[in-house]
Design a protein that fits this description.
single chain; 254 residues; alpha/beta; TIM Barrel; 9 helices; 8 strands; 16% strand; binds zinc ion
Length: 254
């Protein structure tokens, strides 16, 4: 199992990667989005050199607010072409997989329509990513529409897509991450780890919310030994480092 951390897309990417490397992470979850981590502003040569120096791996991550499920066709098209600007960059920086997030149309559109819009965009994105030898991963976000049923519909409709399990998102509104692990482990390619109290997407340090980590990791470990990103947004990074220690210890124990 490998532990990573994301760069903050609104901060200097070189400084961000430097911190990640110096604090013993295995990889960077490349959060490439507005306003500092965009193709026009990233010095690929410099970033590549830094990753090599510290022997850091990478995973790609597109903006969570890309409107791939918009009811407006031209916005879906724009979301696809925006995503495509980042694929060459991820490839050059050694990523093999890229995350794209669920996106739901307003509730005057049905579940059928909401999933159909996403499926159309995702099919196109899978093809475009493949041109850069990148696999696409689908990450459900923090809405009540992100359910076992919706993930099932998306994954079954697009055989080439992988599953990105965000443990914090999938404990919200009475959901249970373990059910998602049991159901989709064959498609599972990447994990985001953070905690909350079940009603708001707080991105808290591990153990400060309601997730039963021992039980969850024990089940996860029976199916999975890949990359886990600590998607913890505390201002004081000591909490991130403490979560890293706790995760490693618990993973070894369960
Ligand atoms: Zn996430």
């Amino acid at each position: 199992m490998k532990i990573g951390f994301p760069n903050h897309p609104r901060k200097n990417i070189i400084k961000e990667i430097d911190w990640i490397a110096k604090n013993g992470f295995d990889f960077v979850d490349l959060f490439f989005e507005e306003d500092k981590a965009i193709p026009e502003k990233i010095d690929v040569r410099k970033v590549k050199k830094l990753l090599k120096k510290y022997n850091l791996g990478t995973v790609g991550h597109l903006a969570w607010y890309l409107p791939i499920g918009s009811p407006i066709k031209s916005l879906r098209k724009a979301a696809i072409s925006e995503a495509c600007k980042y694929f060459p960059l991820f490839k050059q920086l050694g990523a093999e997989f890229v995350t794209v997030h669920s996106h739901w149309s307003p509730d005057l559109f049905s579940f059928e329509e909401g999933t159909k819009f996403q499926i159309e965009s995702l099919k196109e994105l899978v093809k475009k990513a493949k041109n850069f030898s990148l696999g696409l991963m689908y990450e459900p976000i923090d809405t009540p529409q992100d359910t076992i049923e919706s993930v099932c519909r998306i994954l079954n409709s697009i055989p080439q897509i992988f599953f990105h399990l965000d443990l914090g998102h999938l404990i919200l509104f009475g959901k249970e991450p373990i059910e998602f692990i049991e159901k989709f482990h064959q498609k599972l390619k990447h994990i985001h780890l953070h905690d909350n109290f079940g009603n708001s997407d707080l991105h808290l340090p591990m153990g400060t919310g309601i997730i039963d980590w021992e039980k969850t990791l024990k089940i996860l470990k029976t199916y999975y030994d890949g990359t886990i990103t600590l998607e913890i947004f505390s201002r004081d990074k000591d909490y991130v480092l403490l979560s890293k220690e706790k995760l490693r210890k618990l993973w070894d124990k369960v």
